[in-house]
Amino acid sequence: MHVHSHRERRWTYHYPLFRAWGVVGVRDAGSHLGSALAARERAVADPLAPHVIWGSPIIDGAPQINSFGLSAEDEQSGRVLVREMQRMGFDFIKVYDRLTPEAYRGIAAEAKTRGMRLEGHVPLSISPDAAVNAGQTLIDHLTLVMEACIPGAIKLVNSEQAAKPETVDSLALIADARMAAALGHYDPAVCDAQFSQFAAKDVWQVPTLIQMKGYFFADQLAVAIDPRSDQVPANVLAEWQSRGREADRAELANGREALAAQMRMFRAMQDRGVKLLTGTDTSNEPWVFAGSSVHDELLLFVESGLAPAEALRAATLNPRLYQGRDTAVPLLAAGERADLVLLDADPLVDISNTRRIAGVFARGSYHDRTSIGQLLAAARQAAAKGQ
How far is 108 from 59, CA to CA, in rounded Å? Predict the structure, then answer.
């Protein structure tokens, strides 16, 4: 599960929400360096902490999109950062939008030499094909995947990056009117070739569809009454509502078209054997709630054409495969180690039944309905403190 839970003390309400909603493991895809180092120590002792796969701080080009990232301006500085991140004990290198081809090449080569996984966005200066050939093993948010299915779209993105390196970012490009117009030229044959490459080279995809829905349906979500709204700090909720009121309606419409196109790609990806993982981008992303939004993501997977069993695999077995662990189901017996979520109804019949949680076993603790209610109350209390 793709999250950013270790900045601004978000773990104080994220951790109990993860546990309450049956999220027993996460992949932290980038935080402030200092926050991440401190959080790694804290997570070992915190009984509510999920199992965490730790990504490096985001490595971006110059200027960086996010203040909490690191900058690699050329091949050598990229290599140096990879060495530093490995020395600090991070599990993978997280790459981002504004890297130049030269800096990305240095990062990829050094990561390969040192046996570190290379994951994250496909930089806007290259293509998914180039990223895969360089050794990137996971793509977040389907970055540039849809564009790779549209003749000429990657060239457009690359030229935008070259012309406006200080302003361009992947989310803004999705809502660009030119990209919306280009969707009419989507070529399934080109897509099939790209998906076959992903499958052949074991490149994982973490779509985070719920994150895109939060951005591009912001106007509707801002006026809806979501019962989970008390699970985020008041200032965060106010920002989400403001975003929905002030969003450019044309950009929202373009983004919705792009999201629909990405969802239509899903069945073809699954048919070509592309490996999928659930993820939500839980942080302060609009209308993405810690824990519960993974169930929203599963529903979007099914609405995109996956069978419930295929969607569940992306949240259960596939994380084990991604980590290189064996596929054997952990033994449910005294003395054995296993995390388990008990449901009241069959999710193979209706994927929304994943929300009907009767109990959670995690890190040696059991939470029944009463305990789950207490976790939710603790999360609301922490969120109310603005943490």
Answer: 12
pLDDT single digits (tens) 23-57: 999 999 888 888 888 888 888 888 898 999 999 99
What is the edge-to-edge ordering of all strands in the sheet holding 51-54?
2-3, 25-28, 51-54
Q: Is 80 among the domain residues?
A: no
173 falls within a domain = yes
- 144/173 Cα distance (integer angstroms): 10
Block residue for tokens 């999710």: 347
Q: What was the pLDDT predicted at 141?
A: 92
The total number of residues shown for the chain amounts to: 387
Question: Under a CB-based contact definition with an 8 Å cutoff, are residues 264 and 304 in contact?
Answer: yes
Among candidates 3, 9, 34, which has minimal Cα distance to 379? 9
Domains identified in the chain, total number: 1
- The pLDDT confidence band at residue 328, using thresholds 50, 70 and 90, is low
Which residue in 165, 114, 109, 97 sits closest to 136, CA to CA?
109
Answer yes or no: is 238 within a domain. yes
Q: What is the pLDDT at residue 276?
A: 96
Residue 42: give the domain boundaries: 2-54+121-384
Classify residue 386 by burial, with Cβ atoms within 10 Å: 0-12, 13-18, 19+.
exposed
**Would the pTM count as exceeding 0.70?**
yes
Q: Which helix or strand (DSSP H or E) is residue 358 part of?
A: strand 357-362
Q: Give the model's pLDDT for residue 108.
A: 97
